[in-house]
Amino acid sequence: MRILKDTSATCCRAPIRISMAASASPGAQWISASPPLRPQRRVSTASSMTRVNAGPRSSSLDRIIYTRSRKILPGTRSRGKSVGTSGRRCAHRSIVKSMMQRGRSRILHAAALGTVWAACQNVALAQLAPERLYNGVNRSIPVRVDLPETIGEEGGTVEIALLTPVDHAEVARAHAAAGRVDLASLFPVLWTRTEPTLLYAQLIVDGVKVGPGLALQPMLTPRQVVDETLRSEIIKAYDARDRARILAMLDPLSRERMRAGGLLSFAPYQRGEPVYSGLRVYTDRHIVFETSHGEFEIALRPDHAPNTCFNMIHLAEGGFFTDIAVHRIVPASESGHPFVFQFGDPAGRGVGGPGYSIAAEPSRLAHDFGVVSMARGREPDSGGSQVFVCLSRDGTSFLDGQYTSFAQTVRGLETLLAIEAEPVTGAHVDSPIEAPIVRRARTIPAPPRGDGPDPVRRPQPTSDER
To answer: Less Cβ around it within 10 Å: N or C end of the chain?
Structure first.
């Protein structure tokens, strides 16, 4: 699949459970490691008062320290000659005492950091989890409110808010408690809206948004693609015997055809409204692509292309993007601006896919730097797994409304630029000499709504580069 000049095809985290071992906090790292080695303590009950001793041979650690101390401290065996035992014991006890003191200070330091860390995680581990993916209209929408026990014991305020996807404006808010709740009962507006649009259910604890939101995607009758404008333009070119224009109109991504419109024109809904069948409810996720040039992370935009986003989650979690080549890199379009790079074909030739196709969607997400969009063939409803990543607004703005854009890159600017910089060759000057590899894709829980990173921006060229 290609974007330009190729008439055969066109291109175009479950909750986060932070591991102590994976944390960047020094205290967390210490907690995750084994506790400081200390000699086993020998308890003597010879008198009424318990006496604790740490003898030189009271544990395996003692024997290790004892053996090592013989080589470096006075009073040890040297050159086959035995030195006094008192010197060895004195040196050994000094080492043990020093290690125990350092161990106690580390334990106290780790305990303090661990207490702070645990307090923060009590809130961070709270989350919403759907019980069903599909929820029919006018039925219950069961979800679970998972809260650490400490929040319940301390009596924190627990709420769920409905938020809009772009400006995160609050549509409604209701009190909740740990356990099973019904969103339909909390928010009757979900079934009474006359124009259902995607919303997010966000858990709020003591006024703070925690955990990923739940995407509440309306299941609506899809709009059909029509090409009436394009058909009219082709007829006009045929009547005028304008062969060059006819060929240009038949090229799926020629600028001539773009100007004619109609490539992704959608028929209006019958009787002015779609059929509202219910809600698809799932945990909001980001997708991370691990490549040979580094990682880049995308935030999905189901408010623009809900079915395309869900299809990408399905492919990423199913392992589809494993060892897949970036088979096409177009560092500059006809206008001279950075264009796109493309991947998603296991065969690496730009013609393969997942074995099925999905319908195009009327996305209004502008093709800007870092935006991810669906590639497809001649037919609008022929996308599946191939995607392209935009490399500049100037180079890809003419794709707006013609391809289904569905995500924005929020991390990995250097990775995008490194892939763009790969040298290319081939008849269309878009085949990388050494193709970058997408090693795998994984999904991670998205940040709370409104707290995530902004989309990456292309660096402005310096005066020398201009």
So the answer is: C
List, in order, residues 6 or more apart from 296 with CB less than 8 Å away. Answer: 288, 289, 409, 411, 412, 413, 415, 416
Predicted local distance difference test score (pLDDT) of residue 156: 77
Please give the average pLDDT of every successive group of 10 residues along the chain, which has 466 residues.
44 39 33 36 38 40 40 40 49 56 56 46 70 97 88 75 96 94 97 93 94 96 70 75 72 48 63 86 98 98 96 97 95 88 93 93 95 89 94 93 95 97 80 95 96 93 61
CB-based contacts of 82: which residues, under 8 Å, 6+ apart? none
C-alpha to C-alpha distances, 282 to 134, 153, 313, 319, nearest whole angstrom: 9, 29, 11, 19
Q: Any idea what the Cα angle at residue 366 is, between residues 197 and 262, rounded to 5°?
A: 85
β strands within 413-453, DSSP E: 424-425, 431-432, 437-445
Q: What is the 3-state secondary structure (H, E, C) of 83-150?
A: CCHHHHHHHHHHHHHHHHHHHHHHHHHHHHHHHHHHHHHHHHCCEEEECCCEEECCCCCEEEEECCHH
Element (H, E) at 243: helix 243-250
Q: Which fold would CATH assign to domain 284-445?
A: Cyclophilin (2.40.100)
Rounded CA separation 352/110 (Å): 53
Element (H, E) at 66: helix 60-72
